Amino acid sequence: MVERLRLERATTPEFLDTLFVLLADSRRRSILQVLVERGRPATVHRLAAELAALEYDVPVADVQSDQQHELFLELAHVHLPLLDDTGMLAWDRETERVALTPLLDQLSVTVPDLRGLFAAAVPGWSEPR
């Protein structure tokens, strides 16, 4: 069971359990990585294309439609609902726009080496400029 992340509960076992559930999955770490590097919201389709490019090590323009569609379905049915429910990102289902919430930056202060966790866990991770 995951809960909505609230910084005032950062030292509770439930908060840490939820955070670890979110970060335990490499696809969710990649979603956060792409959104941090973009620095702006993305549509679910664009996010799926950028994730496929990252995973298949090809330019976004070379991502095949079936690769993008498979990721789109997984994002829409598995990862985005969880990340949205916990407050890590905001997902508008009507416009299909996905944006980071301030929570990730706030967590970076609360959990100082959070970005280091991404660096260790996501191949190709680099700090945004």
Report on this structure.
The protein is mostly helical and 129 residues long. It has a single domain, classed as Arc Repressor Mutant, subunit A (Orthogonal Bundle), CATH 1.10.10. Helices cover 58% and strands 8% of the residues. The protein has a three-stranded antiparallel beta sheet. Strand 2 and strand 3 form a beta hairpin. Helix 3 crosses helix 4. 24% of the residues are buried. The model has no long low-confidence stretch (mean pLDDT 86).
State the end-to-end distance: 35 Å
Spatial extent as radius of gyration = 14 Å
Strand order of the largest sheet: 1-3-2
The biggest beta sheet, please? 3 strands, antiparallel
Assembly level: single chain
Q: Structural class, please?
A: mainly alpha
User: Which of globular, elongated, flat, extended, rod-shaped describes the shape?
Assistant: elongated
Instruction: Provide the number of structural domains.
Output: 1
Our count of helices gives 6
Give the class-level CATH name.
Mainly Alpha
- Mean pLDDT rating: 86
What is the CATH fold-level name? Arc Repressor Mutant, subunit A
Poorly predicted regions are none
Helix fraction?
55-70%
Q: How much of the sequence is in beta strands? A: 5-15%
Encode the helix/strand succession as letters.
HHEHHEEHH
> What is the CATH architecture annotation?
Orthogonal Bundle
Number of strands: 3
